[in-house]
Every structure is written in C-alpha cells, then in structure tokens.
C-alpha cells in the first residue's frame, strides 16, 4: 500500500509540474518563425529624400515607415489535433509584442556603447491582436523604429547637415540587433507562450528614392 501511495504522490507531483509549464509543448499549437524582413536585413532610413533624391530640398522629403514584416506558422503540436479556427485551440492569438535592442556590433567605426545606450531607451512592449489559424502562415507588421525614435538627436545625426537641426554631432551609420518577443496563447487557454525572433537592423541617414 505504501508503494502505491508513493507512486500516486509522484504522479500527482508530475501532473502539477506539467500544469505549470509554459512551453509550446503544453499547448496544442506550436508557433514557428518563418521569416523576419524576408530573412534579410532591415534597413532603417531616417529620411526619404523624395523624387529629387536631394535631402537639402525639403519639399518632397518624407520619413519612411519603420516596421518589419514577420511571418509566423502555426504548426499543430501533433497529427491528432484537427481543431478549426473557430474551435478551442484552433488558433494561436498574439496579444503582445516587445522589441528590445540586444546587441550593437563591437567593430562598428564609432562608440558602439553610446549607440547601445541610446537604443535601450526605445525598448517597448505593446498590445497586439493577431490570430494565427492552425496549419496556416500569417504575415503582419511589427514596429521596430517608430517616428519618435527617428527625430531623436542621435538618429538625426545620421542625416547630412543640411537636413538636420543645426548643431547636432555626426552619427555614423551602424547596425544593431532587434529582439522581437511575441507573446500569446492558444484560443481557449490562459497559458502564455513567448516566441522569439531576431533581425539585424542597419541605421542609415537616407534611403534611396523609389
């Protein structure tokens, strides 16, 4: 009897530990990152000089958008899961996206620590509402470089003197790594799961006019 009691106790503890798990294996859906920025490098330009391709002539200058396309795939955790999108566990629901700047290349020709410290000021997390049905791909945009980041003095220093506020020091083009953390849960579940993706971002002053 005592041995059965120990076995039952061990089983109860195992189930309790499993119920606390917050990995994809506990959920019916497993989210895979298909691509970020088309599996390439995201170029964050501070200014689009427009059709005349001249930043000093400001009439057609524009601030380019700073979002990147993320593609996720919802893979069923096993072959026996056949829930439809409207059913419990039939989709994965992204509820929050966080962006953190985690690295600046040490061999960049400028004070990398300064850039890293500036980038840290633009870490953020915000609510999202993206549903990924089971066995499907979904593409959506994540904001990496918001407009208020581009008007910061450090990033304005990437522009030629004629296109930036007077008195700002030069900032040389540089690259950094953005860590994107996507938080969500299976429909019908309260267990949050984090999915991480990375993308290298090159910060430059001007983007080529299209």
List the defining traits of the structure above.
single chain, 210 residues, alpha+beta, 5-stranded mixed β-sheet, 3-stranded antiparallel β-sheet, 17% helix, 39% strand, elongated
What does this structure look like?
The protein is α+β, with helices and mostly antiparallel strands and 210 residues long. The protein has one domain (2-206). Helix content is 17%, strand content 39%. It has four helices and eight strands. The strands form two sheets. Strands 2-8-7-4-5 form a five-stranded mixed β-sheet. It is elongated, with a radius of gyration of 23 Å. The chain starts with a helix and ends with a strand. 24% of the residues are buried.
Computed over alpha carbons, the radius of gyration is 23 Å
Name the helix and strand elements from N-terminus to C-terminus, one letter apiece: HEEEEHEEHHEE
Distance between the termini: 79 Å
What is the percent of helical residues? 10-25%
Q: pLDDT under 50 segments (min length 5)?
A: 6-25
Largest sheet: 5 strands, mixed
Mean pLDDT: 83
Structural class: alpha+beta
Shape: elongated
Strand content: 35-45%
Number of strands: 8
Overall structural domain count: 1
Helical stretch count? 4
The largest sheet has its strands arranged as: 2-8-7-4-5
Short description:
With 210 residues, this protein is an alpha+beta fold. It is 17% helix and 39% strand. 24% of the residues are buried.
Summarize the helices and strands and which ones pair or pack.
Layout: H1 2-19, E1 29-36, E2 42-47, E3 67-76, E4 91-104, H2 112-120, E5 124-133, E6 137-143, H3 147-150, H4 153-156, E7 174-186, E8 193-206
Parallel strand pairs: 2-8
Antiparallel strand pairs: 1-3, 3-6, 4-5, 4-7, 7-8
């Amino acid at each position: 009897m005592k041995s059965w009691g120990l076995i039952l106790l061990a089983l109860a503890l195992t189930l309790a530990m499993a119920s606390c798990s917050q990995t994809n294996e506990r959920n019916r859906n497993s989210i895979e990152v298909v691509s970020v920025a088309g599996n390439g490098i995201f170029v964050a330009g501070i200014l689009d000089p427009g059709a005349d391709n001249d930043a000093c002539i400001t009439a057609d200058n524009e601030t380019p958008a700073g979002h990147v396309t993320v593609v996720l795939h919802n893979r069923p955790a096993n072959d026996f899961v056949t829930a439809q999108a409207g059913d419990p566990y039939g989709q994965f629901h992204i509820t929050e996206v966080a962006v953190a700047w985690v690295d600046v290349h040490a061999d960049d020709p400028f004070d990398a620590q300064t850039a890293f410290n500036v980038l840290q000021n633009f870490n953020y997390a915000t609510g999202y509402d993206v549903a990924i049905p089971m066995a499907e791909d979904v593409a959506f945009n994540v904001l990496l470089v918001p407009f208020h980041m581009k008007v910061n003095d450090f990033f304005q220093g990437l522009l030629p003197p004629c296109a930036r506020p007077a008195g700002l020091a030069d900032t040389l083009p540089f690259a950094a790594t953005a860590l994107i953390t996507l938080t969500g849960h299976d429909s019908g579940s309260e267990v949050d799961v984090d999915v991480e993706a990375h993308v290298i971002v090159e910060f430059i002053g001007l983007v080529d006019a299209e």
